[in-house]
Amino acid sequence: MFKHIIEDHLDIRILELRHAEQLFDLVSCNQDYLAEWLPWVKGNNTIDHTKGFIEAALQKFANNDGIDCGVFFNDRIAGCISLHRLDWLNKKTSIGYWLDESLQGKGIMTKACRAMINYSFHDLQLNRIEIRAGVNNLKSRTIPERLGFDLEGTIRKAEWVNNRYIHHVVYGLLKEDWKNE
Ligand SMILES: CC(C)(COP(=O)(O)OP(=O)(O)OC[C@H]1O[C@@H](n2cnc3c(N)ncnc32)[C@H](O)[C@@H]1OP(=O)(O)O)[C@@H](O)C(=O)NCCC(=O)NCCS
To answer: Which residues are the signal sequence here (predicted)?
Structure first.
């Protein structure tokens, strides 16, 4: 199905049920590190949960309402990147992502985001992309900052994660400002 090659050894692919075992294992290995910022991680206790997530993701894609991809490094799933929902009326979407802890620091997610941005603006003809991150999630915030998003504001107590409310920062990128092809 959908596969986009970013460079040698790095591509993104739409998630399918055959990826469930690898994805479940990856999340399990990264449980504590991911749970700091991602509320769904603690509930990801069985392979059925992962299968349910992939089934819902495929349904969302079929409904033209978003896409969930695996980020593959050396042909192994290394993380995920998603367009959460497609707001066709306002031609906008938002990107979410996470990466295997041991594969941080190589620019993998920045490159995957660049590919998703090009897909959103060129293929889907959207006009605006948002990325939200926890105020203190500096690794995540660096990605939109590196890609030229504008910091547009803060949403207080936006999410209950890991037994505390976190504030979100909102970054936005408009098609007319996207030069980073
Ligand atoms: C957020 C997350 C994906 C960031 O991972 P990351 O490896 O820092 O991000 P990137 O893949 O873009 O890599 C950037 C790093 O690679 C380095 N790098 C190397 N080559 C690079 C390149 N060609 N381009 C960009 N960066 C490059 C950068 O200097 C940076 O390293 P630094 O953090 O030591 O300064 C990861 O920390 C994560 O999954 N965290 C937990 C889940 C989470 O918080 N998700 C986001 C919720 S909003």
So the answer is: none
Closest-lying ligand 1 atom to the alpha carbon of residue 131:
48
* Cβ atoms of residues 129 and 170 within 8 Å: no
The protein residue with its alpha carbon nearest to ligand 1, atom 25, reads 107
Backbone angles phi and psi of 136, in degrees to 5: -95, 5
pLDDT digit string (tens) for 20-44?
999 999 999 999 999 999 999 998 8
Question: What CATH code would you report for 3-126?
Answer: 3.40.630.30
Q: Domain segments of the chain: what residues?
A: 3-126
Q: How many angstroms does the Cα of residue 130 sit away from the middle of ligand 1? A: 18
Would you state the structure tokens that stand for residue 86, as one six-digit string? 């497609």
Instruction: Sort strands 150-161 and 164-174 into parallel, antiparallel or unpaired.
Output: antiparallel
150-161 and 67-73 beta bridge pairing: unpaired
